[in-house]
Amino acid sequence: MAREGLRYQTFSRRTFLLAGAQGLAMTALGGRLYYLSVVEGEKYKLRAERNRIAIRLIAPERGEILDRRGRKLATNKQDFRVFLIPEQAEEVAQTLVKIGHIVKLDERRLSRIERQIKRQRKFVPVTVAQGLDWDTFAKVNVSVPELPGVVPDAGRSRYYPAGNEIAHLVGYTASPNEEDVALNPLYQLPGFKVGRQGLERRYEDHLRGSAGTRRVEVNSVGREIRELPPRQDAEPGSNLNLTIDLELQHFTIEKLGEEAAGVVAIDVKTGEILTMASAPTYDPNEFTRGISSENWNALLKDPRKPLINKCVTGQYPPGSTVKPLIAIAALEHGIVKPETEHYCNGRHRLGNHVFNCWKKGGHGRLDLKGAIAHSCDVYFWKVAEELDIDNMADMLSRFGLGELFDLGIDGEKPGLVPDRGWKRAVLNQPWHLGETLNVSIGQGAMLATPLQLAVMTARIASGRRIFPSLVSIPGTDLTRMDAFDPMDISPLYLQLARRGMEMVMELGGTAHDYRRPKSAPKLAGKSGTAQVRRISKEERLDGVIDNKDLPWNMRDHALFVAYGPTENPEVAVGVLVQHGGGGSSVAAPIARAVIDKALEIRHRAPADGTTDTAAAASEREGS
Fold it and tell me: From 3.90.1310.10, 3.40.50.10490, 3.40.50.300, 3.90.650.10, which CATH number describes the 56-241 domain?
């Protein structure tokens, strides 16, 4: 009995300890439950709500790009497209094969789809095709029951109504790359596009707008179940207004035809760029839709380089277009006077080297204005022997050569105004007098862009440091020429250079074939023909070489700069025809046609009642 009692006491003690431990555990558990549900209940309720509700972004509509009269250069239109949700497709590869029977998918596009599927979650839609016509889109919709995971969608995409006429300015939009996606969650939205070239890229933040949001209920793996209120709509991007006149741009592109060329026309009063046309060009809509491999390779292989904006990226010897500036520099440094004459017999000797004037047999005796009008090389070589290269380079730079203007488009190059410091820094060699002679006629190491040539001409015409602009910034008003600083040049010297350029377009001048009728406002200009290769002694002895007989890439560049009307300059142009031959015969008619068209547009009574502020300013300046 004693042993039984002891065993009972031990059992009772253990039962008590176990019950006590259980009681403590239950108390602790109850306290924890109270703490979580009451004390911190609101905190965990919010966490649970966040797990249940996700925020989805709404893509904003991209702002439009407009010309100076409000005509659309870049806008948005309905886009029929097809998405694929990988997790809903029974077999992604087979589904893509089936879609390929309806929508053409090349290897490049398929590779891009596969990369996109791998880098994002399986329930996120992937763009398979876009820019579909209605018939193809309808076929996809009919086939949807047989294509699990395929989602047809009628959204909005970028569209360029003017197509290739504005490609080099506006650029294009395209799908964001992997680096872009990592920077902005908005870029993960299916079908979303970002600016890739030109103004679309530079003004991406301005054009893109702000994303909207919507609240959706999701399950444990993040799949959307239903949308919950409220929804915050996206804010569309801001519009971008350009100084370009679309009608003039269209005219200029048509005028260039099949040439490889660049033309820039500038408002002499305001510096606004009226046209910037580079040919050949390309259709930016192809890039927005996704350009095919065949078309892409064709653009790359074209020797005329359609992807390059020749107006700002192309750097060419300016040739004789710079002779008015050399004349001004010679006058400023006392090398010549207005009446100084030199005799041209067609040749100029420097040491053992003979420089040959473009006119075999020479021009005879000419004064400064006559030398500009007839583009006499010998006259300017004689001037260059006494004019220091650094003084020459200073004058060229003052008129915009070698200057970057940062218009917001891609690839702008500075050109090159060589001098002693440049040659020492780049080649570690001394400067030679023969190089000065080459620069005096716009050859040698000297390079310029058509944009710089147009600015140079506008500064000659106005006597002011005209600065070009391409984008109209709200709140600024450059409608008068006196908004720009005067050039630090004697008015007399400028007038002599202008008179020489007027004589270029008169009887006997290098471009007299394109002079205007006596009743029409006069133009002033300067031709230039830039050699792209050294002419051999044998070729020189054989006589004049016709560019038409040479392979295209060995022909001279044709250049022409002009402004008008001479009495009250309104428009200045710079024209470059790559491997075009003679500046007077090829580039001059383009320059005249563009100026005539620009003046006709400016002084035409607007049919819609709108006004061109720059044209109105020109009339005020002339009154």
Answer: 3.90.1310.10
